[in-house]
Write a structure and sequence with these properties.
Strand content: 15-25%
Structural class: alpha+beta
Helix content: 40-55%
Distance between the termini: 86 Å
Number of helices: 22
Length: 625
């Protein structure tokens, strides 16, 4: 059992990592779906140049601590000394082989300057092979033999790097990986099903007879959500099968220098699959002008363009699955699916959102392109009616969720504003979840804190919405009314003072090509200020963490922003993220200055403090002679 859990955890962890990896479309060696790798290779990591990578990382760390950078560089160089005969200017590869086939799954492949030196004592206490000017080393001799045989059979003379756009690239094939571990994944799902379906073990009640309170709790404790979990696990197996058939190569690329970190992540759909068709329909460049209608002080934003019809198909499919998991009838399912599909098709395929700093934390603005104002209002009304009555309404009440829609709740400058209140009974919600009572208490506390931070209330969300001719705008948070009023003014001005007109936003747009279908930006300074204010209200300004967090006034006036963009090219979707180093370094420097100032002030107070009067002591008795 422990072995199974360990294997499954490893596989699922790898799957999560792989889901965010990127793909470059270079052809691999003969007989391999990866650009490099033997039959048991599951992940390949390639670095263009050892020396270039070391210098880039050292330069990055040096911006924060030159001493640490020097120690790091010296440590890596010392570790590389034992690999004699290698070419440090050339590429290196790390192959992760199937851990079920090899005791040590890591195999390293070097570019060699002197193959004879590498073979004859180049590495001590580890088996090595040299194939031409490629050297293979691992603690597992079987791994060395397998990779060396692969190199000979493929006729590889160099580590392929022509397809690499980045300093380092990790590659795997998701479908092949899932197929390789399909049995383990299925065993894990079967084990989970058996655990949720199991009845109390014989003698369990007797064993707890001395603990009457625990016994009563055990006897009374139902298995909330048991059937729902079992149905969901069934769909999980179907999802795994779909991933195996529809997802191909995936990669993660990393480039580093002293100014920024660039991450490229993407995934390839199997040609002809439903996933590939969805990507093809979703290849719609987003309108950059949509950013003009987001608040200029947004600390983060997100733009997206999509195909409403394919999105409606996706929403309808997910609705059917959700209805089946929660045991709704076919008629109820069809009603819910039709309503949600009709609502999704009323959108135009443009969407945007932004986080805005407000007193006590963050607020939010959401924009949704609509085809027609009256149709969009009618669809929203239908969805609300669905959630208020019928099977969906009963289901939501079971989980403690209640909705209240008030159309034309108020009017601002002749614009009617709708209000939607979503109340959540956290006690009922956590009671319906399939977790132990102690865990539910912790979950309730976490839900309450998250809702208060995001929406201003522990058990309630309030959203105000206005409908324009082709754009609907919503605001949430503690100050939602103020936010939606400002949004109305921004829309009326045709976005003249919106986020898209700020110089900082233009700078991050310039980092990405025109054809992206999704784009985001984040201000670390703005996020930090909002978090600091929220923490200060919760913890008090004199708590230790709060004393060290710099305010916006203590940071430089200009800031480089984090940005990301999604591109779709054929069967491949790629996410590129730029993380500038300067704002991180600015925050670190401000924290150091603040800590140093606080220490100096404390030392000055100690030095300038008046001397304490001596404590009263009884007089010394006269000496005795």
């Amino acid at each position: 059992m422990m072995r199974l859990r360990t294997k499954v955890c490893a596989v699922l962890a790898a799957t999560v990592v792989v889901a965010g990896l990127s793909f470059n479309s270079a052809k691999g060696a003969a007989g391999s779906k990866l650009p490099l790798g033997s039959k048991n290779t599951i992940v390949t990591i390639r670095v263009k140049s050892i020396d270039t990578a070391i210098k880039a990382v050292s330069q990055l760390v040096s911006g924060f601590s030159p001493d640490v950078a020097l120690m790091l560089e010296q440590g890596v160089n010392k570790a590389l000394e034992k690999f004699r005969g290698i070419d440090r200017t050339g590429p290196v590869a790390f192959l992760i082989l199937d851990p079920e086939k090899l005791s040590v799954p890591l195999v390293v492949m070097f570019t060699l300057k002197d193959p004879n030196m590498f073979k004859n004592g180049g590495v001590k206490r580890a088996p090595v092979r040299a194939v031409g000017r490629l050297g293979v080393v691992s603690q597992d001799p079987d791994g060395v033999a397998e990779v060396a045989q692969y190199l000979k059979g493929a006729g590889l003379r160099v580590i392929p790097t022509a397809d690499m756009q980045d300093m380092a690239v990790a590659t795997t094939h998701v479908g092949v990986l899932v197929k390789r571990y399909r049995k383990d994944i299925q065993e894990a799902l079967d084990e989970a099903k058996a655990e949720f379906a199991a009845e109390p073990k014989p003698g369990q009640q007797d064993a707890l007879r001395a603990l009457e309170e625990a016994k009563a709790e055990l006897a009374a404790e139902p298995k909330p959500g048991q059937q729902e979990v079992l149905r969901a696990l069934g769909y999980a197996a179907a999802f795994v099968a779909a991933v195996e058939q529809q997802v191909g190569l995936a990669e993660l690329g990393l480039s580093v220098n002293g100014q920024r970190i660039r991450l490229r992540s993407a995934v390839e759909a199997t040609p002809g699959s439903a996933f590939a068709a969805f990507l093809k329909k979703s290849d719609r460049p987003v309108s950059r002008e949509l950013a003009n209608f987001l608040p200029p002080n947004a600390v983060s934003s997100w733009l997206m363009s999509y195909d409403p019809h394919s999105m409606a198909e996706l929403v309808g499919g997910l609705a059917v699955i959700a209805c089946d998991i929660f045991g709704l009838s076919e008629a109820e399912t069809n009603t819910i699916r039709r309503t949600l599909v009709r609502s999704a098709k009323s959108f135009s395929g443009l969407a945007a959102s932004a986080e805005v700093p407000v007193e006590g934390g963050l607020g939010g603005i959401g924009l949704q392109g609509i085809r027609d104002r009256d149709t969009a209002r009618a669809c929203a009304r239908e969805v609300y009616a669905l959630a208020e009555k019928g099977a969906l309404g009963k289901l939501m009440k079971k989980y403690g969720v209640a909705l209240q829609l008030t159309e034309k709740h108020r009017v601002y400058k002749d614009i009617p504003i709708d209000k939607l209140e979503i109340s959540v009974d956290l006690d009922r919600l956590v009671a319906a979840l399939p977790f132990p009572p102690v865990m539910r208490a912790k979950m309730k506390e976490g839900f309450a804190e998250q809702m208060k931070t995001a929406f201003g209330h522990e058990g309630k969300m309030v959203i105000e919405t206005v409908y324009g001719r082709n754009l609907a705008a919503s605001a949430y948070g503690l100050h939602h009314a103020e936010l939606i009023n400002k949004e109305i003014e921004l829309i009326r001005s045709a976005g003249a003072n919106g986020l898209g007109n700020t110089p900082e936003y233009h700078a991050v747009l310039a980092e990405h090509p025109e054809g992206f279908c999704a784009f985001s930006h984040t201000s670390l300074f703005g996020k930090l200020e909002s978090i600091a204010k929220a923490m200060s209200q919760k913890m008090g300004p004199m708590m230790m963490p709060m004393q060290f967090l710099p305010t916006r006034a203590e940071l430089p006036p200009d800031e480089e922003l984090i940005s990301g963009a999604v591109h779709i090219e054929g069967c491949r979707a790629t996410l590129t993220v730029h993380v500038p180093i300067k704002p991180v370094r600015d925050i670190a420097d401000a924290v150091k200055v603040k800590m140093q100032k606080m220490m100096e002030e404390r030392m000055n107070r100690m030095r300038n403090a008046p001397p304490r009067p001596p404590a009263d002591t009884p007089p010394m008795p006269p000496p005795a002679f």
